[in-house]
Structures are given as structure tokens and as C-alpha cells.
């Protein structure tokens, strides 16, 4: 492996997950061209070899990682492009790029959210916007918080793609001393579950903020698994899908229970009475579920899949419903 040509990877995004992925990739034989929108953060990384704004303890290896603030330079000779900005900002990050810049490359979405303007999964949006063949597109899923990657705690990722060689190649890039990545071909199931678990974590956070305990949360998460199953099996039925695998259930659990979870933290603030704006200001990070719940709600309209938890979160965040009365209603409904 030592003498082989390094994999050429463009990392798009300067937040916690991008920083953690750069750390994972740097364990292997790679050249990462890392694009950040912040000139100040980029300059700091070049000079001091760490990202001062996110996971600042992570050391960046300057021999393997080149920092860019012009996205075309980061993309130019990449074989793999990893998108790691929150979904709401990805179109802005890629502004001005055309299918030409993506031709022949593998596009990997590390994003667990939906493009809000069009209610599309990120991988669908990449396919339609940049004419990338579906079997060259994958998404990174699995229960894996950036903060634990920074500490080199053993973690697992699942790489979903309709193209088996693509999923296998990306899994190989992301497997290292402390991460095991495995391929799977259920792209839609995995990606939708990754989006929906954020909404459920918001609900968990809200109940925690309201003073509900672990007993209630366990029932909430159990009901949520049924709700997620109904939704993905209605939209994309796959006979062999096993929602107890870590890409689905594992990710739901870590987001609902971990103190690192952005979505749970955001929900907790809402449950404690913060307004949406003040909760967003309180957090230095983005809770994807806030945007995703509006997309999932809209997508579900023609299907009418019963999703009481998603509907409650939607009403709290977008219709001004009271968290207390929404959770009272859920309390009566769940068993
Ligand atoms: N964090 C994690 O553990 C994991 C995250 N993910 C997913 O990774 C994706 C990225 O999340 P994460 O890294 O946690 O996010 P963070 O909250 O850590 O970072 C946010 C990023 O978004 C950028 N940003 C913020 N506002 C804007 C804006 N208005 N326009 C353009 N860019 C903006 C920030 O740039 P700047 O710093 O310049 O403001 C920063 O790069 C999400 O989809 C998340 O679900 C997936 C698995 C694990
Ligand atoms: O998806 C994640 C971990 O797998 C990160 O999202 P949260 O920070 O909301 O848990």
C-alpha cells in the first residue's frame, strides 16, 4: 500500500464532521484538498495545523492535507468529492459549479439532511444537478459523532450506494485504526433513516427539556422505529432491509441518547422554552432536523403515512404549537 498512488479527495466543508473525516482519511494513503468557506479558519489551519473553530484538538497533517478557500482548486484533480456542509448550505457552497467540475468523480455525501428548497435527498440532488451517474454517488451513515472520532474512540460507518464498487471503495478509504466502514446498497433507506433520526432526536430533546425521563424516552424511540419503518417501507420498499442494523437503528440511538448530539441539544433548548432563534444562537452548530422536518412533512403529504412524532415536531417548530400540549398528545397515543 505504501508505494501506491494516494487517493485524491476533496473535502467540502469546515465544520465538525468535515474535520473528523479529514482526520480519518489522513490515517490512509491520501491527499486531501480541504475547502473551507472561512478564510480565517483556513489560514489558521495552514499555520497551526488545527481547526480553531471545530474539534480544535485534532491535529491536521500538512503533508496529506492541503487547505483551500477556492472550491474549484479543491475539486480540480479529485477522484472523490466529499460533501460535509449542512444540507441547507450545500447549494450555496457549490454555487457556480457545473457538471463539468464533477465529471468522472465519485461524489460522497456526508450530509444527514435534505436540500430544503426542493425537498430532495442530497444524493438525488447531486445526481440531477450535476449529472453524476447514480452508481458514482454514495452517502456516509452510521452512528458516529465527530467528537468521538477526535478522541479516536472505536466507531463504525456504513457507506450506502447503488453502485457496489463505489460503496466498497469509499468504505476502504474510511476504514482506519479506529473506524470500520462497511458497504451497503440500500441508498434510499439509509439516507432517509439518517435524515429522520435527527427529527426523532429533536423530539427526545424536547421531552428531556420538558422534564420527561428515560422511561418515556425509551417508549418514544421505540415508537419512532415503527414510524420510520412505515415511512421508508412505503416510499422505498426493499424486502431485505433490516432496520436493526447500525446504519439505521444505531444512528437513531446515538443521536437520541448522546450528549454530543446537535439535534437532541437543540430540542432540549426548545423544550426548556427557548425560541427557535435563541436556540439557534445558543448553539455553535447546526441541527439538521430543524430543516429536515419541514421536508419530510411535505414529502409525506401525498402518502399520508401515520407519523405522529414527526408531525408533532413539525407543529412545534413551524406552526408555533406548544411543546407541552404536543407531548401530552403523544403521551396518550404511544404505548
Ligand atoms: N457532527 C457530527 O458528528 C456529524 C455530522 N454529520 C452531518 O454532517 C453535516 C455537517 O454537519 P457538522 O459538521 O456537524 O456541522 P457544524 O455545525 O459542525 O458546522 C457547520 C458548517 O456549516 C457551515 N455554515 C454555517 N452556516 C453557513 C451558511 N449560512 N452558509 C454556508 N455554510 C455555513 C459552517 O461554516 P463556518 O464555520 O464558516 O460558519 C461549518 O462549516 C450535517 O449534515 C450533519 O448531519 C454526520 C455525521 C456526524
Ligand atoms: O449523525 C450524527 C451522528 O451519527 C450527528 O448528528 P447529531 O449531532 O444530531 O447527533
TrEMBL record:
Which InterPro entries would you find in this protein's record? 6-PGluconate_DH-like_C_sf, 6PGD_dom2, G3P_DH_NAD-dep, G3P_DH_NAD-dep_C, G3P_DH_NAD-dep_N, NAD(P)-bd_dom_sf
Q: Name one Pfam family in it.
A: NAD_Gly3P_dh_N
Keyword Lipid biosynthesis recorded: yes
Query: Residue limits of the Glycerol-3-phosphate dehydrogenase NAD-dependent C-terminal domain?
Result: 186-324
| Record's keyword terms, sorted | Lipid biosynthesis, Lipid metabolism, NAD, Oxidoreductase, Phospholipid biosynthesis, Phospholipid metabolism
Residues of the Glycerol-3-phosphate dehydrogenase NAD-dependent N-terminal domain: 9-162
Which GO cellular component terms, listed alphabetically, does the Swiss-Prot or TrEMBL entry include? cytosol
Residues at which substrate binds: 112, 262-263
Tell me a GO biological process for this protein: phospholipid biosynthetic process
Q: Which GO terms describe its molecular function?
A: glycerol-3-phosphate dehydrogenase [NAD(P)+] activity; NAD binding
Recorded E.C. number(s)?
A: 1.1.1.94
Q: What PROSITE patterns does the entry give?
A: NAD_G3PDH (PS00957)
Q: Indicate which residues the UniProt annotation says bind NAD(+).
A: 89, 146, 262
Catalytic residues as annotated in Swiss-Prot or TrEMBL: 197 (proton acceptor)
Name the enzyme group at the top EC level: oxidoreductase
Catalytic activities: sn-glycerol 3-phosphate + NADP(+) = dihydroxyacetone phosphate + NADPH + H(+)
Q: Please give the family membership noted in the entry.
A: Belongs to the NAD-dependent glycerol-3-phosphate dehydrogenase family.
Q: What is the protein name stated in its UniProt record? A: Glycerol-3-phosphate dehydrogenase
Amino acid at each position: 500500500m505504501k508505494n501506491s498512488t494516494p487517493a485524491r479527495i476533496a473535502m467540502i466543508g469546515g465544520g465538525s464532521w468535515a474535520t473528523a473525516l479529514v482526520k480519518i482519511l489522513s490515517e490512509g494513503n491520501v491527499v486531501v484538498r480541504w475547502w473551507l468557506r472561512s478564510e480565517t479558519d483556513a489560514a489558521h489551519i495552514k499555520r497551526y495545523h488545527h481547526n480553531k473553530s471545530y474539534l480544535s484538538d485534532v491535529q491536521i497533517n500538512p503533508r496529506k492535507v492541503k487547505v483551500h478557500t477556492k472550491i474549484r482548486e479543491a475539486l480540480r484533480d479529485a477522484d472523490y468529492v466529499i460533501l460535509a456542509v449542512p444540507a441547507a448550505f450545500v447549494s450555496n457552497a457549490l454555487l457556480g459549479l457545473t457538471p463539468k467540475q464533477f465529471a468522472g468523480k465519485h461524489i460522497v455525501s456526508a450530509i444527514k439532511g435534505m436540500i430544503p428548497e426542493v425537498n430532495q435527498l442530497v444524493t438525488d440532488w447531486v445526481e440531477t444537478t450535476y449529472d453524476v451517474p447514480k452508481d458514482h454517488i454514495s452517502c456516509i451513515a452510521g452512528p458516529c459523532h465527530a467528537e468521538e472520532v477526535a478522541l479516536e474512540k472505536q466507531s463504525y460507518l456504513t457507506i450506502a450506494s447503488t453502485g457496489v464498487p463505489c460503496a466498497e471503495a469509499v468504505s476502504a478509504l474510511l476504514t482506519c485504526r479506529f473506524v470500520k466502514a462497511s458497504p451497503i446498497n440500500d441508498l434510499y433507506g439509509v439516507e432517509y433513516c439518517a435524515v429522520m433520526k435527527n427529527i426523532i432526536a429533536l423530539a427526545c430533546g424536547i421531552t428531556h427539556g420538558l422534564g420527561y425521563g428515560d422511561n418515556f424516552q425509551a417508549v418514544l424511540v421505540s415508537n419512532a422505529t415503527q414510524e420510520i419503518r412505515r415511512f421508508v417501507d412505503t416510499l422505498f420498499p426493499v424486502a431485505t432491509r433490516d432496520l436493526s442494523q447500525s446504519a439505521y437503528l444505531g444512528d437513531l440511538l446515538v443521536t437520541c441518547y448522546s450528549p454530543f448530539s446537535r439535534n437532541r441539544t437543540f430540542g432540549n433548548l426548545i423544550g426548556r422554552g427557548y425560541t427557535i432563534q435563541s436556540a439557534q444562537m445558543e448553539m455553535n452548530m447546526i441541527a439538521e432536523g430543524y430543516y429536515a422536518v419541514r421536508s419530510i412533512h411535505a414529502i409525506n403529504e401525498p402518502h399520508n403515512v401515520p407519523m405522529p412524532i414527526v408531525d408533532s415536531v413539525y407543529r412545534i417548530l413551524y406552526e408555533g404549537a406548544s411543546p407541552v400540549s404536543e407531548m401530552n398528545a403523544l403521551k396518550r397515543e404511544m404505548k
